[in-house]
Structures are given as structure tokens and as C-alpha cells.
Amino acid sequence: MTERERIALAVVGPRARVLTDDELVEQQRQADAGDDATLGCQCKREADLRFEDHGSVVLVLADSDAGLDWLTHKVATASWQWLGPKAIGIDRRFASDLVSVAVDDGLHVEA
Questions:
Q1: Which of 7, 60, 64, 99 lies 20 to 30 Å (CA to CA) from residue 70?
Q2: For residue 16, what pLDDT band results from cuts at 50, 70 and 90?
Q3: Among 29, 28, 70, 76, which residue's Cα sits nearest to residue 49?
Q4: For the sheet containing 49-54, what is the strand order?
Q5: Radius of gyration of the chain (CA)
Q6: What's residue 39's pLDDT?
Q7: What range does the domain containing 48 cover?
Q8: Residue 25: how many other CB atoms lie within 10 Å
Q9: Confidence label for 21 from pLDDT (cuts 50, 70 and 90)
Q10: Could you tell me the pLDDT band of residue 26, with boundaries at 50, 70 and 90?
Q11: Considering all CA atoms of the chain, what is the largest pairwise distance in Å, rounded to the nearest integer?
């Protein structure tokens, strides 16, 4: 298991799928060529929420207005968890559940 797969599994859980290096290179080649038709549904959409694994703490960063709205209204937080206006710190044990709920609510999540 690669380091990238280990992190994805730890943050997102067993539903995570990590693209292979060949898939990433091919997507970048197509994007550089402007070949959006061949990308189909794999066109990169900006993430609403981004999860960053920092060991025992996972940072949840809102990268869109929808992500920030969801984070402020759907996630119960204490004031000390907020790290600036658009990010919270959570215990890593809750990260995979939070990712699942965000995806179920229609948000695009990057882990």
C-alpha cells in the first residue's frame, strides 16, 4: 500500500479510491491538451471541503461558499476548533464519518 493510499484510507475510509500515477498523468495530459470531451465526468471540480491529515488532528477546510455554509450549519463545533474563518480541527476518529455525511449532502470532498 502506498503512502497516498494509506492516508486516503485513514481519512476517508475504505470507500476511498486513489488514482494511480498513470491515471493522474493521463488526466493532466488531457487537461493540458484542452481535451475536455475525453475527460467526461473526470473533469476536476473544485472541492467544497478539503480534509488534511495532520496525525491526530484532521483539518477541514472550506474551499467554497457551499462548503463553508455546510461546515457552519451542519457540524457542531466549539469555538476553539475554528482555525481562522474557514477551517476547523477535528479528531481523526470523526473524519471518515464527516466525509461520508458531506458526500451524502452533495458536497465535493478532497482528502
A1: 7
A2: very low
A3: 70
A4: 87-91, 57-62, 49-54, 109-110
A5: 15
A6: 47
A7: 3-110
A8: 11
A9: low
A10: confident
A11: 46
CA angle 93, 94, 98 (to 5 degrees): 145
- Which letter does DSSP use for residue 51 in this model? E
Average pLDDT over residues 64-74: 94
Count the domains in the chain: 1
The pTM of this model reads: 0.61
Rounded distance between C-alpha atoms, residue 24 and residue 16, angstroms: 16
Comparing CA positions, the residue from 25, 24, 27 lying closest to residue 35 is: 27
In whole angstroms, what is the distance from residue 75 CA to residue 102 CA?
10
Grid cell digits, residue 108: 465535493
Q: Is 22 helix (H, G, I), strand (E, B) or coil?
A: helix
Q: What is the model's pLDDT at position 38? A: 47
